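Slide 14.
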Amino acid sequence: MNRYVYYLIFINMIANLVATVPRILVVESKNGVLFSMGLAAISGVIITFITVKCFNNFPGQDLIELLKTRTSKWFSVPVLLYFALNWFIAGLITLVTFTFILIRFLSPETSIFMYVLSFLVIISYGVLAKTKSVLYMTELTVVLFSPFVFLLIVKSYVNDVFNMDFVKVALMHANEWPSYSAYTASTYLYIGIVNLVVFNRYLTEKIRFGAKQIIIIGVVGAFVLLTTYFVPIGIAGFDEIDRLIYPWISTSDSIRMRFGIVERLLFIFLLIFLAIAVLSIVIHWHVAVKFFYTVFTFKKLKWKDKPLSPVLILILFWSVGIYMVSYLTEHQLFIFTSYFFNLLPLFFTVLIIVFFVIKRGVKG
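Slide 15: predicted structure.
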């Protein structure tokens, strides 16, 4: 399988390792979360397989091109707007979540607007960059930070404060019926494959997806899911873990790097996942801008022969992001994100229907 496909999948998994997903899982810890994660691991591999199979019918073509050439405007415009809104919300959730994380754990005295503006300035370049440049940026981030992420995960398991007895208590709830919220939140870790809607343009050959690829994605995804859930429980305990707003961030502060330059793992943890979060927002909003720009193309709005429509769309993203950071509380963000995750089955159903229509080539 093309290495960029792996990058898109894994960057989404890592970015959500510390965000809202672990919070939902620990809240549902007594409501069949283990069964839910098992179902999500199977569903995630199936979603990846189906998505790859859909795009393999059209190598070197993105969803925008397929909708333009194979469907009528009355169909393509609502679909593009629906997908654009979903990708925008996905990036917005990451933006607001990590802004709250930084204000809580890094510097509570700093204005929250300083954090969100810093985020927005940094991601703007990537959002407006060429799609191929975003792919290269993804590769560079994964190559640079994956070893550190792996080291941090290993250190989370192999330390004095991790208690297997807490994990055994959690395992006692394995026979409970699954929770829908835990299932959709777990499935979201696998959803990075759908970014092919834009990036497939640069994958000119069919993506190989056989037993080897299924095993890799299945095993890595299951490991990330189990780590997301069990590490906070193993460190903070099972009974009180649902009181933590950011389980992974809070528990990481209990771990020390005894012979490291920085002893507290929290600071290393935040810096690494901050870089990954920035890339995650760039990917989501880059896709969203592409979709919105396809619908709202104002040909006369140019500066030095360069279209200004993407810039105007990004300014709108800025405005909504700043407003949501000032408006939402952490609890409201959690509820909002849960609703977004719960709509994932609808999102994937729409994607399948769209590819069915595209394959039939209905236009008129």
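Speaker note: Strands lie at 302-303, 306-307.
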